[in-house]
Amino acid sequence: MDNRPIGVFDSGLGGLTCVRELERVLPGESVIYFGDTGRVPYGGRSRETITKYARQDVAFLRSHDLKAIVIACGTVSSAAIELLRAEEALPIFGVVEPTARRAVELTKNGRIGLIATRATIASGAYEQFMHRADRAVQIRSVPCPLFVPLVENGRTQRGDIVIETVVADYLAPLKEAGVDTLVLGCTHYPLLREVIGAYMGPDVRLVDSGAEVAHELADYLARRDQLSDGGAPGHHHWFVSDSQQGFRDLASHFLGRPVTEPVDKVDIESY
Amino acid sequence: MDNRPIGVFDSGLGGLTCVRELERVLPGESVIYFGDTGRVPYGGRSRETITKYARQDVAFLRSHDLKAIVIACGTVSSAAIELLRAEEALPIFGVVEPTARRAVELTKNGRIGLIATRATIASGAYEQFMHRADRAVQIRSVPCPLFVPLVENGRTQRGDIVIETVVADYLAPLKEAGVDTLVLGCTHYPLLREVIGAYMGPDVRLVDSGAEVAHELADYLARRDQLSDGGAPGHHHWFVSDSQQGFRDLASHFLGRPVTEPVDKVDIESY
């Protein structure tokens, strides 16, 4: 039993879709969340810049007494996880490994699609882990740089010609390639699940990276007897690097529930 | 005569549309440009964060020997220029004042539209300067948060249903309000001039903030006999806070010419 909280960070608010899954799978756990809203988005930046920002994010989380860290950001999980693990004593969970394994388990025709930010695609991390699980799978990757701003501006509904057109533009090559499994390789993308699902059709399985890492963490904590005692629901604490104003409204969108816990601001550049 | 360069900064590459105008109006001047590509965009961030970033941007430019500083960023010009001027001996030119004055000169029916980032609109700076020039003008403002990512992803062409739809969504209230003058209050927006112009119709005058500040600076330098000797075209030097990779391609888009001058990286958080 271990009642210390789990540290979760993301470039911004997308990682809250991962916290939503954590709450579903591990309702007794407490979470310290950091969203780097002052420097979001990471997905179009260089590996060097992403690594620098991620180190600061981890350093801030480490100012709390945690039992594990979750990188709820596809971009950081792809570009910097090895380095962060090498520098850190706590276990660090990223979205890429469990999601890649799950996609390989699910595919029947061996053709997997991957959509993510430019930096995630450029890192080749998903391909690497999928090929480690099964050398024979064929992977088609497409960077979708407009998805994050469209989600953040609420353009997520079916019937909205803007998101429908952008989804079709990005996903057409994957549909043509006949993928039967599609990895949503960015934690913003679950908010587009309906539009993406409708475009790809009912035979294509969508794999949500936030959900996969939540399950992996649950298994890990259970095996090591590190789950919380579950005497009460977990206590969360939210931290952001830009003003807290507006956080609750936007965050509730990603989290799927009202945000009632404390929200504080962090000077992340000082870490 | 003063051959020192002009310092220009922006949250990213949008400010290059302003340098393009500077090159047209003042071809003999040298420019030191800083684009904060590691922290772009500024337009959705709080005034506090924008001010902090802008101070670092000015501090970096001041590590060069300059004759003037241009804030080629609508967001910073709106949110932080008074404070930057109070802290700085060099003259600082922002896009808001000259653009606001020009819009008031141009309007015939006294109805002016303003499109810009959320932070620019929230600051009220444009309204303030327009009302200072003419108390009677009516101003309608619309934040257009999707324009920057759409421009940066090349969706600027007429006939693209995505940009056409987003332009119509944002600008419909301005068209209905019967504005005869529309301020492009963000230096990214000149790349949408054609789509916006087609939507608003030929009777609406578009005012480009980058062009207005270039003219204001030219007048100022001429009056003070601080123009360069014009013996040769100016030398430019580009600086960015993320990797230089890809800068030349994207920048040439905004600048309207190939980028041949040196590009260097700056650790902006250390300023």
Structural write-up:
The structure is a homodimer of 271-residue chains. With 271 residues, chain A is an alpha/beta fold. The first copy, chain A, folds into two domains: 6-94 and 211-270, Rossmann fold (3-Layer(aba) Sandwich); 96-209, Rossmann fold, CATH 3.40.50. The first copy, chain A, is 43% helix and 17% strand. Chain A contains twelve helices and ten strands. Chain A has helices spanning 16-25, 47-61, 74-79, 81-86, 96-106, 118-123, 125-133, 147-152, 161-176, 193-200, 209-223, 247-255, and strands at 6-10, 31-35, 68-71, 92-94, 111-116, 138-143, 181-184, 205-208, 236-240, 263-265. Chain A has a six-stranded parallel β-sheet with strand order 4-3-1-2-9-10, sandwiched between helices. In chain A, strands 6-5-7-8 form a four-stranded parallel β-sheet, with helices on both faces. In chain A, strand 7, helix 10 and strand 8 (205-208) form a beta-alpha-beta unit. Chain A is globular and about 50 Å long. Chain A starts with 5 loop residues before the first strand and ends in a 6-residue tail after the last strand. In chain A, 53% of the residues are buried. The A-B interface holds A 37-39, 45-46, 48-49, 145-146, 149-150, 152-153, 155, 161-162, 165-166, 169, 241-243, 245, 269 and B 37-39, 45-46, 48-49, 145-146, 149-150, 152-153, 155, 161-162, 165-166, 169, 241-243, 245, 269.
